[in-house]
Amino acid sequence: MQEIRHYDIAIVGSGPAGEKAAIQASKLKKRVFLIDKREKLGGASLHTGTIPSKSLRETVVNLELLRRRTHGIEISMRENVSTEELMYRKEIVIGEQESKLRRNLMKNRVALERGRCQFLSPTELRIQPAHPDEEPYQITTDYTVVATGSAPRKADWAQLDNECVFDSDTILKIEKLPKKITIIGAGVIGCEYACIFAKLGIRVNLIARDRHVMPFLDREIAEALVYRMRNQRITMRLGENVKQIVKISPQEVQVELESGKTLPCSTVMLAAGRVANSDKLGLEEIGVELGHNGLIHTNEYYQTSIPNIYAVGDVVGFPALASTSLLQARIATLHAFGQLENERIPRELPYGIWTIPAVAYVGRSEEELTDARIPYEVGIAHFKEISRAHIMGEQEGILKLLFCPETLRLLGVHIIGPRAPELIHLGNCVLHFEGTIKFFINSVFNVPTLDEAYRIAAFNGMNRLDYDSL
């Protein structure tokens, strides 16, 4: 009988959350075991989600910028671009990132296994290696972090064929660009892909059950995004439910709505949410509590109902972002080994949405402040006021600061415009340290940069208070 190996901590899943938990535990000089069912490390974030979709977006944005002759230079380009050409950069990025991840884990002496695992008890795992010639074995562990991510939600009324009907994972394998696409679901993923296809000159129908696109956004920012998306010839079908999808031929499909509308198109993409990959692990059998869509219930330290088992990333639900997964994994690992006491956990997290234009926010929205009866004032900067935006040819968008009118303390930052997910970090730092908008006024910003928008917005907010002296 094979000897049962013991580890200080076992990590299930090698996405951003699993990687961070493994590296953090290694830095604490712990013996770490990591298992993933995929041949390649990195999880959905690297192979079907964050990295490939953002790489594709970058390619499309740069292509559109060249075609606009923004810089006054005539460039001869073919109108029709193949999917192979569009996906080229994506494949390069994925390969480089996977290699870097593998080297990093090996350098930190993390024991890697490809295969599946099942909990036999809170401290025992049965490991089934992916290679058919290898026998299953058991390990014991003091702590386990479940970071298995999520998968696209399946719908009874939609049969994926990866010919006409795709989901957000398989759409990246599409062989031919569609003439017209219908995207079902106007959340983050649906809106991001709608913008990508629209920038390629493809006509897009975007269907949402809700009457608002991404209702968690500040309303002014959401309305500005909808306006820009409609200008890109994206037809918004809000407050609609899908009845069925009917495939007419290999090149034609139609989406029937409960309202009686029929939308003909060549391709359908399902982006109607995701479900947690928490099944087949034996979690419920050992007492771990699961919720709706298989989400794992945790406390503020990402402990499950079994104290030595933690869960992080998409498998615990909102916000289900790679960025927040990294923080969750670090908190969970430090808490497991009693190293969290000297850490300051941020109350607010920055969010980035890679639509075109991009959106980002941190802190409270106007609606949240109003509902909480918290007085606030607004400072706004328009990107058309910023020289850097003119140089880039990206003049549309705004940066909005929300702050206390008495103390000037920053309460929230909301951005729509070029490089919004990167710009948001400055506002996040000021918010984290409970700073005021005076920081932006008294700081020196390099010129020309997009960060100047913070100074302009701060001055705009002060002017609304009728200050005699700034």
Question: Secondary-structure blueprint of this entry?
Answer:
Elements: E1 5-12, H1 16-27, E2 32-36, H2 43-47, H3 50-67, H4 83-107, E3 111-121, E4 124-129, E5 137-146, E6 150-152, E7 165-167, E8 180-184, H5 188-199, E9 203-208, H6 219-231, E10 234-238, E11 242-249, E12 252-257, E13 262-265, E14 267-270, E15 274-276, E16 309-311, H7 322-336, E17 351-353, E18 359-363, H8 366-371, E19 377-382, H9 387-392, E20 398-403, E21 410-416, H10 420-432, H11 438-442, H12 452-464
Parallel strand pairs: 1-2, 1-5, 2-3, 5-16, 7-14, 8-9, 8-14, 9-10
Antiparallel strand pairs: 3-4, 4-5, 6-15, 11-12, 12-13, 17-18, 18-21, 19-20, 20-21
Helix pairs in contact: 1-7, 3-4, 3-5
How would you describe this protein?
Strands 1-2-3-4-5 form a 5-stranded mixed beta barrel. The protein has a 5-stranded parallel β-sheet with strand order 7-14-8-9-10. Helix content is 30%, strand content 25%. The model has no long low-confidence stretch (mean pLDDT 90). It contains 12 helices and 21 strands. The chain is of the alpha/beta class and 470 residues long. The chain folds into 3 domains: 208 residues, FAD/NAD(P)-binding domain; 108 residues, FAD/NAD(P)-binding domain (3-Layer(bba) Sandwich); 114 residues, Enolase-like, domain 1. Strand 8, helix 5 and strand 9 form a beta-alpha-beta unit. Helix 3 crosses helix 4. The radius of gyration is 24 Å and the shape is globular.
